[in-house]
Structures are given as C-alpha cells and as structure tokens.
Design goal:
Layout lengths: L1 H5 L1 H23 L8 E8 L5 E8 L4 H8 L6 E6 L2 E7 L2 E2 L2 H4 L1 E7 L2 E2 L14 E8 L2
Parallel strand pairs: 1-8
Antiparallel strand pairs: 1-2, 3-4, 4-5, 6-7, 6-8
C-alpha cells in the first residue's frame, strides 16, 4: 500500500476523490431545497400602479408555482408560457407585462431578495414571504 502512495499520480487521484467526496457532502448538507410538511407562506403582488394585493396560505407545497396554484382559490390569477427554463409568467391578476412592447416584466422576490430559481423550482420554506413586482427595464 505504501508503494501506491509513493506514485505522485496515484496520490493526486486519491486527493481529488477525497475533495470531490467532501464537496458532495457539503452540497447535500447545505443545498437550497424544498421543505416538506405544513408551511405558512405569504405572497404579495405589486402592480404597475404600486397597488399591493396580499395572499397567505398554509401549504404542503414544495415550490412557488404550487403555492400560486393553491392561491387561485383566493383570487390570484396568472398566465405564462412554458419554456426551456420552466413557466415564464407574463400576466398576474389580469395585468400583462410585455417586455418587447414596453420593457415590462414580473420580478420575483423571496424574503426581500431576488428569487434565484424559476417559479417551478423556487423552494418554499415555512415563513417564506414571496413578492411578485411589476417592473420596467430602464
């Protein structure tokens, strides 16, 4: 076994394998993922005039899109098109944001920070506060 580690190439391979294994463990422990179980979630929609509509629910949903579907019973409406990146929302509560026409789009936040995923893959955790804001490019 000692001769195995004397070869620099073999030692390098072992080090690479150990580093990759450590990275896998760190990812598994700290990855941003959905939490199963009952969660309290809020969602606010801010339109082009700054008017705010607020919704809340208790849910077992894992992703934002599922929460939005649940909130349809409370009056939230939305439309969009499927793309390679998931559902691209272009209309919320009857207001269409058309980037090509006037630079408008819907911007999504979670707990005051920009969502890093699309609505189909944005994880939902207990206490998540989502916001969908009508925004115009400058």
């Amino acid at each position: 076994m000692k001769k195995f580690f004397e070869n620099k190439r073999n030692l390098a391979i072992v080090i690479i394998v150990v580093v990759l294994a450590a990275m896998g463990v760190i990812y598994a422990l700290f990855a941003n993922r959905a939490t199963a179980g009952s969660k309290n979630v809020t969602l606010a929609v801010v339109d082009d005039q700054g008017a705010r509509a607020e919704y809340s629910c208790k849910t077992d949903a894992e992703y934002l899109l599922d929460v939005m579907k649940e909130l349809e019973k409370d009056g939230l409406t939305f439309k969009g098109e499927e793309s390679a990146y998931g559902l691209m929302i272009d209309t919320v509560n009857g207001l269409r944001a058309d980037y090509e026409a006037d630079g408008a789009y819907w911007y999504f936040y979670v707990n005051g920070e920009a969502c890093m995923n699309g609505v189909s893959t944005e994880p939902v955790k207990d206490g998540s506060a989502f916001e969908i804001v009508y925004t115009k490019a400058e």
